[in-house]
Amino acid sequence: MMWRFCTLLIFGFQISVNGHMKRSIELIAAHEMVSQEKLSGDTIPTSYHLFLQPFPADGYFEGTVRINVMVNNKSDVIILHADQDLQIHNYNITQLLPPGKKMEGTKMVGNEPELYHPTPLKLKSSKRVKNGSLFIMEHASPLEPGAKLQLYLQFSGKLFNETSEGMFRSSYVDSDTKTKKWFVSTHMRPAMARNVFPCYDEPMYKVPMVVSVARLKTMTAVSNMPRESTKPHETMDDWVWDIFRKSPPMSTFSLGIAISELRHLSYRLSSDKNIHLRVWTRSDFITEVKNVSEKVEASLDVLEKFWGCAFPLPKLDILALPNYKSKRSADSWGVILLNESDLSEQGSWIITNELVYQWLGSLTSPLWWSHAHMNHVLANYVTTYVIKKLNKPDPSRDWYISTLYSVYYEFSKRYPYSNNTHIEHYTQSDKNEFVLRMLNYTLGEKTFVHGMQRFMSDRKFDTFTEDDIWTSLNEQARVDKKLPQAITVNEIAASWISVQRLPLVTVTRNYQDMTAYLRQKVYLRDRPHDIPDQEKLLWWIPVVLVKQDKMNFDDGTPYTWMKKEREIRIDNLPGDDSFIIVNPEEIGPFVVNYDHHNWALLLEYLCSENRENIPVLTRTKLLHDAWNLAYAGDLNFATALNMTLFLKNEREFVVWERFFTMIDHVGRLIDGSPVHTKFRTYVKILLTSLYEELGKEPEKGESDNIANLRRATKRWLLSAGYEPLVREAQESFKQWIESSDEKTPGLHQSYLCPVFKWGTLKEWNLGLERVLQFPATGKSEDRFYLLKNLAGCSVDSQKIEKMLNITVLEQNGNFTDEDISLIFDMLTAGADGYKSLFSFLRNNWDIVKVRFEKKPNLWNTLIDSATTLFKTQDGLDLVSELYVEKQGEFGTAESLIKKGLIKIKEETKWSNENLPVMEKWLDQYIKTNDVRSV
């Protein structure tokens, strides 16, 4: 048995070209440069035989390739991908069979047909596309559909040394022999096979490959398939050729080759798999990878059950490469390249993720390149699914919970991503993983897994589009009767994936007739809530419902669906003595608001001894949603503050983590108002008892949950000015200053900001002196951190004014423009900072204007930092007066201050509505709690 697949595949000379014309519009648009070089499909490959001989010490490689192709459409050219740096020395084309002839009866010699009448074709010319990666061979007469050809090309290229892409080389010093050792490997994703050999470098062309590699006898070569034979080199006595078995049909980016003198550990995975695993590494790193086989086997067990089919190859080689420079692992089919640190990691996420790509990416591939959005999304989701099955983690650390709240935050901005495409890519990917998670819950895990098995079975040895994923899930949901006939998974998914926002569902109960109205709208935190076309945005939302008298948090079956409807009504709800919870366990990525009475019922239950009947994730969601809705202006802030009362008995870090995030956000929002001092007192009251209960030092064997909670509680108490901890920080700072070490790491980083914030002017001046006298041999990141804290942590206008005088007015040579920009940015961390910066700007306008008028970036940063963050009417008046007084003088920053004034008006409105409510609540809270210790 050569290898096992999901179903039996018999290799013939031809391959199926079904779906050849499928296109993924989204992906083509995202990769316009590559799509311009998309091949026409007039000819298609049916197999490759590749010969490669790299010379690692000399930095180049040579090779030949024979490509069997079939003519699909009449054409007078054959076009291949070949990078500009790949030198093509010789080429020819032979017609194996003319149009209309069949291979029936043809004898096979080895892997190739025995040809009785091969016919060389006459070529007219060849050319390279300027600034592209196409090689065009023009024929003297047109090629007719149905003809079968063999292309022969001889080529050479450079072994990359500065990057781990294409075919690359690197070296290390062997610890035993103290000699330099070279290795060569390949990383073909996403479109780098064309850097190594002329080919049809697109995912849809999945065909068998035979690979032959020349190597020094002292080295070992691996490729996608097991080695079939080794024979002497024709002209070089110390070299041999390794010939590897024919592969299954695969895309060119799945090709993998590695040649090295690394040592390996060899395993035969359990008898039911019969997979040969080898883990390769340097000899002195071998002990670090001894448990890799256990991780691989455990992950494969889950993955084979998930996909419903065995690992698709008879062997797997995993290499821990020294000096591997790629940002991500190279997941060639059957050959995985990793950084040494990745292979020795304590957990299993990285290696499991690479194993997922052996199915998703190699056995089936996205129609376009491997960084196709849903390929990445689905691979990450399946990886997390496997890790959850393997580790059975604490439910408080369920899938991506912290990431989900980051996604909420990003999509609730007026302007998501801030033109940062990196953030956009990851936020979109994370959101789409949550859509998969939602479907897993609402369809049920059994249906979801069977749908994925259907998808893999249908698309193996082929390519897929995003819609294929949803179609497979939909077909399985139909079989399992998990969706009403009028609903399709495709529609559900599209409503979430096509929109760069997330919804808010407001639940308003009618307690007399036991019904509720659910209304959806765009969820926005930033003010004003005036994004364009928001009334047009609607989602397919699963209404998963938990009632107080039937609290089953394991059932994700929707009570009903909001079918892109603005408002729906639900019936058969409990009376006014029982709460309901919509979207428990964050089943769908949306925020939920309730009427006042339902919030009160939830709080009453959370403060009772039955609190833990509501799972950790749902308690976290209730706290998160309440505070964020109040921050956004959609919920009375007294209700949000009430929802913190249950924290008195809460000891799960994941719940507290949401509170810590919101006291930071809300603290910034109310900073500078009289309410802020009371808010800080409230935080200290709430955290002091928790900190004292947890104890200052960790106990032997305590859980990560408690350790994380202690660290965070201490950090936030320090930030709030808790005197015992501030004195502790001051003492540590004193010892650091008095030491001979002039570098920041001598002081615990969590102490630096509290000292500059709550300490004396003398301590702040000592920090400034350290910056001014920072040694040239010191680490730049240490100076950066020190300066960042000096500027960002001070709540004393005297300190801030001194720093601005030195850096801006005196133009001290120790500070660069980058330092000044950092100072301006950091002063926005608190009201004392931006208020002092505003006063400095107003009082020194002429000097500052002259200083920065030819430095628009600095000028814009200054105006933005000094004028746009006020939250009250007093601040609005100050900025308005400055704008009127200096109108016409703002230059490039004119639009910034105009936008700032609009924003301040909105924040002022929020403050006028919410600060009195908060102050009243805080007064009552402080009155009923002992404040002597804080």
UniProtKB/TrEMBL annotation:
Coiled coil: none
Annotated membrane topology: Lipid-anchor; GPI-anchor
Cofactor annotation comment: Binds 1 zinc ion per subunit.
One GO CC annotation: cytoplasm
Subcellular location per the Swiss-Prot or TrEMBL entry: Cell membrane
Gene3D superfamilies: 1.25.50.20, 2.60.40.1910, Neutral Protease Domain 2, tricorn interacting facor f3 domain
Cofactor: Zn(2+)
Swiss-Prot/TrEMBL GO biological process terms: proteolysis
Domain Aminopeptidase N-like N-terminal: 45-253
Domain of life, source organism: Eukaryota
A molecular-function term among this protein's GO annotations: metallopeptidase activity
Name of this chain's protein: Aminopeptidase
Pfam families in the record: ERAP1_C, Peptidase_M1, Peptidase_M1_N
Residues annotated as domain ERAP1-like C-terminal: 579-902
Keyword tags: Aminopeptidase, Glycoprotein, GPI-anchor, Hydrolase, Lipoprotein, Membrane, Metal-binding, Metalloprotease, Protease, Signal, Zinc
EC code: 3.4.11.-
Enzyme active site: 354
SUPFAM superfamilies recorded: Leukotriene A4 hydrolase N-terminal domain (SSF63737), Metalloproteases ('zincins'), catalytic domain (SSF55486)
Record CDD domains: M1_APN-Q_like (cd09601)
Peptidase M1 membrane alanine aminopeptidase domain: residues covered: 294-495
Species of the source: Phaedon cochleariae (Mustard beetle)
Signal peptide positions on this chain: 1-19
